[in-house]
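Sanity check

After download, print the first record. It should look like this:
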Amino acid sequence: MLLFVTTANAQNASVSISPAGPTVCEGTVLTANTSGLTGPLTYLWSDGSTTPSIIVYQSGSYRVRVTGTTLYNGVRTVSSSLVPYTVIVSPNPLISVAGSTNLCPNDSVKLVAKGRRPYYSYSWSNGSTLPYTYANQSGTYVLTTSTNAGGCNFSASATVDINVFDNGYQPAVNAISSLTVCKPGYVDLSGDPGFSSYVWNWFDGTPTGGSSVGQNASILLDGSSGYALDTATVYLTVQANNGACSFTSAGTVIRSIRQIELRTQDCGVFNFNSTDSIKCGVVLPYLSAPQYEFEFEETGNPGTTWTYISNDQWCRFTDVTPALQVSKFYNVRVRPVIDGVGYCYGIPCQIGIATLRPNHSTLSYGERVDGKVIDAQIFPNPSSDEFNLVLNSDLEYTQAIVTITDFSGRMIDTFSFDGSQKTVQFGKNLTNGIYLVTVQQGDFKNVTRILKTN
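Expected C-alpha cells:
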C-alpha cells in the first residue's frame, strides 16, 4: 500500500487524472495533470508506474502522487484523489466445444462462447445471437463478439471446424515416410487427427499381420515371405463422438524391396571385355517401370563413384560413362529405382577388365598368342602357408611379372622370373585376406583371386 503525504498548504498545488471516468475503454491512457509544482517532476501511481501517463486494461481505483524539485508555498508533493474506473474490456472470444469436433451422421455438438461479459453481444455464422449454438453440419463456425458500451467499439471473431461424417466416410491415411522401403524396414503412417480412437490393421500375406493403436503407426516389413518384394495392405479404423460410430479407410499398399546384387557368375570375374555386360540377380517386372542403377568405384581411387541407370537388369559396359578402363578393377553394386527413387544397394562385388587384343573378347588361361600356349595356375587356394604358381608357357625366354594387390588396388608385392623357371612359390608372408595376383608375360595377362588363411 502506498503512503501519500501532503502538507497543510496543498491548496496552492494540485494534481488530477484525466479522463476522469468513471467508464473508459480498455487501453485508455490516464494522464496526471499538475499545477503549482516546478519540475522536473517525478510520478508514482497506485499501480507502481512512474511515468506521467499509464494505460489501463482492467477496472479498479487509481491515484497518482507527483513530487517537484522546489517548494511552492511550502509544498513539494501533491496527490490526486482515488478515482474509480470501470474498464470496458475488448472481446477475446474463444469457442468451447462440448464434445468432439468429429461427429457421427445426424449428430450435433454444442459450441459455447468463452470469456463472456454482460455487455457483450454475440453473432454466430449460422444466425444464432446467443452465447452458444449447436453445430450439426460440416463447416467452419464463426463467432463474432462485440460491444459498444461506454462508447467503446470493440469486435473480434473466433472459428472452429466441425466435421459431420456421412456413412461412406473413409479416414485419410498420410505417409510420414516412403511407402516403399528396403527390407527389413519400417513404413510410418499417420491418420486423420481428432478422433477418440485409432486402430490400425494390416496383413502382409503371412500370419504376422497385426494392429497398432494410436494416430501414428510404424509398420515393419521384415521380408518374411522370402520374395524379392513384399507388400502389405494397411487399413485404419477410427471412432468418432466417443465411439458412437466408426469408419474404416481405403487400403493403403506398402512394400519392401530386397537388396539387389549382381549375379554370382558375374562377381569375381577379372577378364571382362570392355564390350561385355553384367546383370543383376533380382528382377522386379511387376513394379511400375522399374529401373536398375549400377554404381562403379575404381579400386585404385576409392570414394569416387559414378552410376549408370538401365531400363532392364543388364548393364552394358559400352554405355557406362566414364568408360571402364582396361587393366583396372572395379567395385560394383546395384539397386532398383522405382518412380525415380533409388532403394537398397546390394553388397558390392569386384570385377576386372582384361588386356584386349584384336579378335579376342576375353583372355582365358589357355589362350594362344602367336601360336604359343600359355597357362597359369595357382595352388593351393586358399592356403595357410605359401602358394605355388605354375606357368606353362612356350615363351620360355620371356620374363613373367607377378603383381599382388589387395581389393582396394594397393600393391602389396611384385616380383619377376624367367619363363623357363615354370614354378615359383610366393605369399608366405601375406596376412589373412583376399588378394589379386596378376601374372603378365608378353601380351598375356591373367588375374587370379587368392585367399590367405593362417
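If your output differs, re-run the checksum step. Summary of this record's structure: The domain at 368-452 is CATH 2.60.40.1930 (Immunoglobulin-like).
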